[in-house]
């Protein structure tokens, strides 16, 4: 279906009845030709009815007998509103030669079978062939499925508990103590009728050759204007006073749903056995009562065959309130879910409009043959799973669900041959479906089954996600988070290269919570997994106070502070898992000789030990580096899009902020003091949690709140955003070079503040002028993009945080001028005048050029052409910091009250290097020029 203008809403009623033109319709007599493609019959004056039309036609003895036996001759002989799709006697002769019921003549048909034959070939409203695809509105070409006259009670079965009809999994064994059960294969509705009309094809840009493919016909078989209903083709039509007759070329029988289509096919028995592992019996008091009333019985319990799935007919009427079928009748959860219920007769597409949710599209399942699965299992991509679990029967459901789900397609219209190239896998990449890979097509009432001669395996079987897929005991916490937070497609991408450091469940017992870094109590979270909960509720955390044991190893102390439950549906657990995942997914591939790997969260992982050797290779997040507690790589997986490393601890971010690192080193005291004095850091005290005042001009708007340090203070670093940065830190000796070049000293600033106080009445602002100069100096030492002394980093030009300022011009073409109070003036001349305050806009950043970078040396050149060296003595390089923007879930905003923070709203990472001389961007940068920064229109 083409959904360009359709909204994702669930319709309020699946039974969109025959409200289309219900006026009388006997104006026209029954005839072999008709002109009702655009209108319904509308007059009762003619005597021809559906029944008499068939009598007059002749060769419908069997179908007429069927009508009589079921007492419908009176109904179809009088006025009413029906649409009938009868087959003639020749078609019945062919039907009795071969059918799935094993019936060879009419007299052998049971009453139930007769009901199926009549009701599946009838609609309780009048539709011409054109109107079959018209939805309420009317909207033409929208419908490909309708409810027929079938009832769910027409197809209910009484099944022996020893029958192969019942799935062979533990959830069905509880029924074995019964001799038989009354079983609905689905209770969402009776098997719908499918139909493909020319208007539907045109509206959805489906080719006739696509329909030929669905019916296993040669291209060119279908002719323009032809209509197909279930497996039959309409060969002749008539309009009568009580409805329409559409004669079909074969007997119409109700279609099975996709699960039944696969189950009944002997060539797909292995795949069916996998699907049936997700089947569970459900019971219903209401359905039991309805059945007993309908059948006149007193059965104690009626059962419905359901499939554990993310979407099913129990999902409700609003797609935004999706309620998957994930608990059986005894309230036991499923260990894995299919994408949708393959037995759902009234399947609703994932995307639909609010008029015809069931009618406008259906699903597709790719089902490999037994031979295809055996080859894949023994010699193809499935061998790695076979090596771990031995047999398909021993393989966990959660592993096999990955295979089934990638082969469950949400839309037939989007999955016909003319659109094979748009079918995507779990990595959102082209799946590679071809005509050569499909043996046969099987029509179902809720979708179409493509019987394939190859296995279309999920990307998760060959991506860095694979270890988490197959290890359902030790890695299920992180896998659950990945599934619920939609990280799967990211990790499965084959156009990227990853280094994925996966923590074991045991490693997730000691997560030091970054939100608590600046609090009075540092917290350690123990993550656990509860498989009795639904999929989105399984992760929970026990929270303890953490203390440093003196060696950098943080341990839990005291009793549990609290428990955080609710899985990734809890915003705090989601927040922490997001922080974890973003900082264990390296977005480049590690290799020997490269030490630092950038992560999805713009932080860095440091690898060490013996590269590529499990047990000897180590990995550190910046927190592990800070505390000298490297995680050990236990296993290594070489996958198609990188390497996955199983580690014994979760890699996370350092508690050190930029201010902490600068404050720790006496060599940085001048630079640190300057940043603090000129307003680059704001303080948040533990007494009142109020930010220190700052001069709020347009150049120093802060955007990150950092909670770090001893817990008594938290510092606001006003320049960074959610990215990674390098700060080139001038040593005290380098600062002396800057002072000699004209940079105001801190003593100069003190004197200026004193002078401004003494001359306050005169409006003196000399201190603010000095602060402007100092800020510009600091900004040029901060570089967008982190660059470490390491292999793999690129030389060339990088942007600094100091932008060039360009004159702002008004509409008159003259530079914009302002008075001392910042009020715009209209007079002026094009000549630049130093005595006038001009308006400026922010231009492109000043650049820093990295000349050389390797593990032992790094040199850069500033905008003035000076060469600066990173100092490698004393370990004053590759120093790592992280800035956090914290917030409160109740207010959904940043908070200066660190103790009330509950979430990481954002963060950035910083690497700091000591440099031997200051970076300069302009020969006049230490000369203050009065100016106003204006918006760039």
Account of the protein in words:
With 937 residues, the protein is an alpha+beta fold. Among the domains are: 466-647, FAS1 domain (Roll), CATH 2.30.180; 658-933, no CATH class. It contains 24 helices and 40 strands. Strands 2-1-9-8-7-6-3 form a 7-stranded mixed beta sheet. A 7-stranded mixed beta sheet has the order 21-16-26-25-24-23-22. Strands 31, 32, 33, 34, 35, 36 and 40 form a 7-stranded mixed beta sheet that branches. β7 and β8 (232-240) form a beta hairpin. α12 packs across α13 (383-389) and α23 (746-758) runs antiparallel to α24. The longest helix has 14 residues, at 766-779.
The stretches of 5 or more residues where confidence is low (pLDDT under 50) are: 1-29, 31-45, 683-717
Instruction: Tell me the major beta sheet.
Output: 7 strands, mixed
Radius of gyration: 37 Å
Percent strand: 15-25%
Bulk shape: elongated
Question: In angstroms, what separates the terminal alpha carbons?
Answer: 44 Å
Number of strands: 40
Which structural class do the helices and strands define? Answer: alpha+beta
Let me know the average pLDDT: 87
How many helix segments? Answer: 24
| Lateral strand order in the biggest sheet | 2-1-9-8-7-6-3
Percent helix:
10-25%
């Amino acid at each position: 279906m083409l959904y360009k203008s359709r909204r994702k809403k669930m319709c309020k009623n699946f039974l969109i009845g025959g409200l289309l033109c219900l006026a009388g319709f006997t104006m026209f007599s029954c005839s072999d030709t008709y002109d009702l493609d655009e209108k319904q019959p509308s007059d009762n004056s003619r005597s021809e009815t559906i029944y008499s039309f068939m009598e007059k036609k002749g060769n419908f003895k069997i179908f007429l007998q069927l009508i009589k036996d079921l007492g419908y001759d009176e109904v179809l002989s009088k006025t009413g509103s029906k649409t009938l799709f009868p087959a003639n006697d020749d078609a019945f002769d062919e039907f009795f030669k071969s059918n799935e019921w094993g019936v060879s003549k009419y007299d052998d048909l049971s009453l139930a079978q007769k009901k199926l034959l009549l009701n599946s070939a009838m609609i309780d409203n009048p539709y011409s062939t054109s109107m079959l695809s018209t939805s309420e509105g009317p909207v033409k070409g929208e419908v490909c499925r309708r409810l027929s006259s079938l009832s769910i009670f027409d197809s209910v079965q009484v099944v022996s508990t020893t029958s192969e009809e019942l799935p062979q999994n533990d959830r069905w064994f509880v029924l074995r103590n019964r001799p038989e059960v009354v079983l609905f294969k689905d209770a969402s509705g009776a098997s719908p009728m499918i139909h493909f009309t020319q208007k539907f094809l045109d509206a959805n840009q489906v080719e006739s050759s696509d329909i030929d493919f669905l019916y296993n016909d040669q291209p060119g078989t279908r002719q323009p204007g032809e209509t197909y209903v279930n497996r039959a083709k309409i060969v002749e039509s008539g309009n009568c006073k009580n409805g329409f007759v559409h004669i079909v070329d074969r007997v119409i029988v109700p279609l099975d749903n996709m699960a039944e289509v696969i189950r009944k096919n002997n060539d797909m028995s292995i795949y069916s056995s996998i699907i049936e592992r997700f089947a569970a019996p459900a019971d219903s008091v209401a359905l039991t009562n309805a059945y007993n009333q309908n059948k006149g019985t007193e059965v104690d319990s009626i059962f419905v065959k359901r499939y554990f799935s993310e979407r099913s007919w129990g999902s409700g009427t609003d797609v935004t309130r999706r309620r998957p079928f994930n608990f059986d009748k005894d309230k036991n959860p499923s260990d894995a879910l299919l994408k949708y219920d393959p037995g759902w007769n009234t399947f609703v597409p994932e995307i639909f409009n609010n008029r015809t949710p069931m009618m406008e599209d259906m699903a597709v399942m790719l089902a490999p043959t037994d031979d295809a699965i055996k080859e894949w299992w023994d010699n193809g991509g499935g061998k790695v799973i076979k090596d771990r679990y031995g047999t398909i029967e021993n393989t966990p459901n959660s592993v096999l669900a990955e295979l089934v789900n990638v082969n469950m397609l949400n839309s037939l219209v989007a999955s016909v041959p003319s659109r094979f190239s748009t079918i995507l896998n779990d990595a959102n990449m082209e799946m590679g479906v071809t005509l050569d890979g499909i043996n046969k097509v099987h029509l179902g009432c809720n979708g179409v089954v493509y019987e394939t001669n190859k296995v279309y395996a999920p990307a998760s079987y060959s991506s860095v996600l694979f270890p988490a897929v197959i290890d359902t005991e030790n890695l299920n916490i992180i896998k659950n988070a990945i599934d619920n937070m939609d990280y799967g497609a990211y990790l499965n991408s084959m156009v990227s290269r990853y280094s994925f450091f996966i923590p074991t469940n045991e490693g997730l017992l000691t997560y030091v919570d970054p939100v608590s870094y600046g609090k009075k109590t540092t917290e350690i979270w123990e993550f656990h997994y509860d498989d009795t909960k639904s999929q989105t509720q399984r992760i929970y955390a026990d929270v303890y106070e953490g203390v440093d044991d003196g060696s950098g190893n943080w341990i839990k102390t005291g009793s549990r502070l609290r428990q955080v439950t609710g899985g990734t549906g809890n915003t705090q657990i989601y927040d922490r898992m997001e922080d974890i995942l973003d900082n264990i997914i390296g977005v480049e591939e590690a290799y020997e000789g490269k030490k630092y790997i950038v992560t999805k969260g713009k932080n860095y992982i440091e690898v060490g030990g013996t590269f590529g050797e499990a047990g000897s290779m180590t990995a550190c997040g910046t927190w592990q580096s800070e505390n000298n507690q490297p995680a050990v790589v236990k296993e290594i997986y070489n996958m198609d899009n990188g390497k996955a490393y199983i580690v014994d601890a979760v890699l996370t971010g350092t508690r050190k902020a930029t201010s902490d690192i600068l404050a720790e080193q006496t060599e940085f005291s001048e630079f640190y003091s300057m940043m603090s004095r000129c307003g680059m850091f704001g303080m948040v005290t533990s007494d009142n949690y109020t930010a220190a005042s700052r001069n709020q001009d347009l150049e120093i708007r802060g955007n990150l709140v950092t909670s770090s340090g001893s817990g008594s203070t938290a510092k606001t670093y006003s320049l960074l955003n959610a990215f990674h940065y390098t700060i080139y830190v001038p040593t005290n000796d380098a600062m002396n070079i800057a002072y000699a070049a004209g940079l105001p000293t801190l003593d100069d600033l003190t004197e200026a503040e004193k002078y401004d106080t003494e001359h306050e009445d005169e409006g003196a602002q000399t201190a603010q002028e000095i602060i402007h100069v100092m800020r510009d100096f600091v900004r040029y030492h901060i570089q967008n993009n982190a660059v470490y002394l390491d292999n793999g980093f690129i030389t060339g030009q990088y942007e600094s945080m100091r932008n060039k300022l360009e004159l702002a011009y008004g509409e008159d073409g003259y530079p914009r001028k302002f008075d001392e109070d910042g009020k715009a003036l209209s007079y002026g001349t094009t000549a630049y005048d130093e005595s006038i305050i001009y308006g400026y806009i922010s231009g492109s950043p000043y650049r820093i050029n990295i000349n050389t970078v390797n593990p032992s040396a790094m040199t850069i050149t500033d905008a003035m052409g000076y060469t600066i060296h990173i100092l490698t003595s004393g370990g004053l390089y590759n120093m790592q910091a992280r800035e956090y923007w914290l917030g409160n879930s109740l207010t959904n905003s940043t908070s200066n009250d660190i103790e009330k923070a509950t979430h990481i709203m954002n963060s950035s990472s910083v690497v700091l290097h000591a440099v031997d001389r200051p970076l300069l961007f302009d020969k006049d940068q230490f000369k203050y020029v009065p100016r106003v920064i204006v918006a760039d229109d």
